[in-house]
Amino acid sequence: MTDLRTQLKLFAYLYIIMLTILFFLVFILSMALATLGISLTIRLRNTHKSETFGFLLYFQIFIYTFGFYGIWGQVLINAFLLPNIPGGIHPGFPNIPLLMGIPFLIFAWLMLIQFSSSAAGRQKVRYFIPGFLVLNFALLFLLGYYVAGTDSPGTEPLIRNYFIVMNVAYALLASAVISIPSGSRTLTRKKDIRSLALLLPLITVIQCLPLLFHETEPRTGLIFIFIFFLGNIFIPVFLSYAALLPSVPGQTAGDLSFRDFCVKYEISPRESDVIKEICKGLSNKEISDKLFISLQTVKDHTHRIYIKTNVRSRVQLINLVKGESGSPLTSAQDRGLPGIKNS
Questions:
Q1: By mean pLDDT, which of 31-45, 192-206, 222-236, 258-272 is the weakest?
Q2: Rounded to whole angstroms, how far apart are CA atoms 73 and 67?
C-alpha cells in the first residue's frame, strides 16, 4: 500500500513537471508566433506603404496584447497565484485579466473589419467606428457588471461563450466585407480575396473549437492558446507568400505604359524582353531558347532586373509590372495559362 502511494505521488510529481515544461514551451511558441506575425505585417506595410497594412498591423498588436495580457494573465493567476492565496476571494477574481484584456480584443475586431474594408476597396462609413465601440463597450460593461455582481464560480463559461460568439461573428463579418464586390480596386487578385474570405472564418472556428471542450483540463487550454496564436499569423503569412500585391502605392493599373515602366527603372531592351517572357510564365530555360541566349545570360539579366526594381522573386516582379503598367502580359496567370516557373 505504501509503495502504491509512493508511486502515485511520483507520477503526480512527474505530471506537474511535464505540465510546467509544456506551459513554458507554449509560452515561448506564443512569443515567437506573435513576433513573426507582427514582423511580417511591418514588412508588408513598409514595402507597400498602404493604409490597409496599417490596419492589419494594429490588428496584430491588439490581438496579441489580448493574448498575453488576457489569456496568459489568467493562466498565470490560475497556475501560480490562486494556489498560494487563502480561501475567501471573489469567485470572479481569476477572470479579471480576461475582462481587462477584452478592450484590446474589441479594438482588434475593429481593426480586422477596417482591414477587410480597405482590402476590398470600400469607402469608410462615417459613423461605423463610434457605433462599433459604443455597442461593444456596452456589452463589455454588462458582462463585467454581471461577473462582479455574482458569487457563482461559473462566470468563466459565460466569458468563454462571449469570446466564441463575438470572435466568430466578427470573422464572418470581415469575410463578408472583403468578399462582396465593391466596384473599386481591391488589395490583391479576386482569387486571393476569395481565399482570404473563405479561410478567415474557418481558421477562427478552428481557434475556438478547443474552448467548447475546455473545463478544467490544462492541456485543452494550452491547445487553445497555441492555436489562437498560430491562427492569428494567417493573414500576414498569406499576404506575404501566397497573394499578389501591388508594389507601388498610390498608382493604379494603366498609370504607366510598359515602355515608361522600363524607362523609370532603367531597364535595357534585352532586359525588357526577359521581363515580358517572365510575365508570360516561361522558365529561364524556355526564355534562353526563345531569345537565343544562354541560360546564364538569362539568370544575369534576371538578377539585374531584380536589383533595379527592388524585388526578390518572379511573383513580386510580375506584381510590380501589373501594378504600375497594367501590362496585359501579366494576364496569363488570371486566364489560367502556364504558371510562374523559377528555373
A1: 258-272
A2: 8
Distance (Å, whole) CA 34 – CA 28: 10
The grid coordinates of residue 183 equal: 466596384
Q: Are 186 and 246 in contact (CB under 8 A)?
A: no
- The pLDDT score that the predictor gives to residue 288 is 92
User: CB–CB of 49/249 below 8 Å?
Assistant: yes
Q: Tell me how far CA of residue 226 lies from CA of 270, 313, 315, in angstroms.
A: 50, 32, 31
Closest CA to 20 of 86, 75, 95, 97: 75
CA distances in angstroms from 150 to 99, 131, 142, 143, listed in the order given: 15, 29, 12, 11
- Please check whether residue 31 is in contact with residue 230, taking contact to mean a CB–CB distance below 8 angstroms: no
Query: Could you report the per-residue pLDDT of 276-304, keeping only the tens digit for each?
Result: 899 888 999 999 999 999 999 999 999 99
Q: How far is CA 337 from CA 20, 244, 321, 330, in A?
A: 53, 16, 18, 10
Instruction: Single out the residue of 291, 342, 334 nearest to residue 315, CA to CA.
Output: 342
Contacts 24+ apart (CB under 8 A), 209-213: 211/160, 211/163, 211/164, 212/164
User: In which residue are the cell numbers 512569443 written?
Assistant: 31
3-class SS letters over 219-279: HHHHHHHHHHHHHCCHHHHHHHHCCCCCCCCCCCCCCCCHHHHHHHCCCCHHHHHHHHHHH
Q: How confident is the model at residue 224 (pLDDT cuts 50, 70, 90)?
A: very high
Which domains, and CATH codes, for the chain? 2-241 (1.20.1070), 258-334 (1.10.10.10)
The secondary structure of 110-167 as a DSSP string is: HHHHHHHHHHTTPPPPTTHHHHHHHHHHHHHHHHHHHHHH---STHHHHHHHHHHHHH
Q: Which three cell numbers stand for residue 134?
A: 459604443
